[in-house]
Amino acid sequence: MCRWMAYSGDPVLAEDLLFRPDHSLIDQSLHSRLGATTTNGDGFGIGWYGEGAEPAVFKDIDPAWNDQNLREIAGQIRTPVLFAHIRASTGTPVQRSNCHPFRHGRWLWMHNGALRGFHQIKRDLLLAVEPSLFPDIEGSTDSEALFYLALTFGLEDDPFTAVARAVGFVEQVGRAHGVEHPVQMTVATTDGESVWAFRYSSEGRTRSLFFSTDVSTLVQLHPEAAVLRGLGAETRLVVSEPLGELAGAWNEVPESSAGVVRPGQDEIRPFEPVRP
């Protein structure tokens, strides 16, 4: 399937996150250890917040490990919020519009997993999208469809409830079409101020997801670690798999959970779909 990374904290160079860690997302594009596929070469994308009112995105269909343009811009982008995604297609075409993260206004969205039976249920799902949002759908993936369902159900007002309603709707439609376990997902979404992350699957065996330990705690554990120097207290990462092997640095997101990273107080809570 895919691998992704969400960063929130003090402004940081994108290359410091994408290329420098021992098991960076670029390394994971060739050597994923926890994903459904070892190689994730069906395109990539990054999204970040800078000077504009909306986030910028850079996406391409080349493998992330072999894109010189990504290396060029990663050394020039400094941002407090970065989304990065490497894609392994679950059946839809390898094209730019199908690469993550997806963008709508100030919102970014990326997904690892699949809506099973998407070919059969696609029409029912897309017909449920708010008509004013429908023209903005550019690609053909289940991931983008889930994003627009979440927007339809109120993502911009209450992300926790909106995603729960979107997932509940997909499960209802899928099971009506005979799909036993319709949803497999780890999802991240942001408005540039907060980052929400979700780990859920209909069968209760969801793909891996981790969050980073508080920086002050890590500094106490590893005062010798150069990689921690200069990181602000609000630095947080949510990743499909750890970027390195520093002891105590990574914590698994519990099964069927959702969390939010924001300045001040982070939160993690149980996640349960809301049926229509």
Model description:
The structure is a single chain. With 276 residues, the chain is α+β, with helices and mostly antiparallel strands. It has a single domain (3-270), classed as Glutamine Phosphoribosylpyrophosphate, subunit 1, domain 1, CATH 3.60.20.10. Helix content is 24%, strand content 28%. A 7-stranded antiparallel β-sheet has the order 3-2-4-1-10-9-11. A 6-stranded antiparallel β-sheet has the order 5-6-7-8-12-13, covered by helices on one side. A hairpin with a 2-residue loop joins strand 5 and strand 6 (107-115). The longest helix has 18 residues, at 159-176. It is globular, with a radius of gyration of 18 Å. The model has no long low-confidence stretch (mean pLDDT 94).
What is the topology?
Layout lengths: L2 E11 H5 L6 H7 L12 E5 L7 E5 L7 H7 L3 E9 L15 E3 L2 E9 L2 H10 L14 H11 L6 H18 L6 E8 L4 E7 L8 E3 L2 H7 L14 E4 L10 E3 L4 E5 L5 E4 L6
Helix pairs in contact: 4-5, 4-6, 5-6
How is this structure best summarized?
The chain has 276 residues and is of the alpha+beta class. The chain is 24% helix and 28% strand.
CATH class membership: Alpha Beta
Which series of helices and strands comes N to C? Answer: EHHEEHEEEHHHEEEHEEEE
> Strand portion, in percent?
25-35%
CATH architecture: 4-Layer Sandwich
The Rg value, from CA coordinates, equals 18 Å
CATH topology-level name: Glutamine Phosphoribosylpyrophosphate, subunit 1, domain 1
Domain Glutamine amidotransferase type-2: 2-276
GO molecular function: transferase activity
Organism: Friedmanniella luteola
Keywords: Glutamine amidotransferase, Transferase
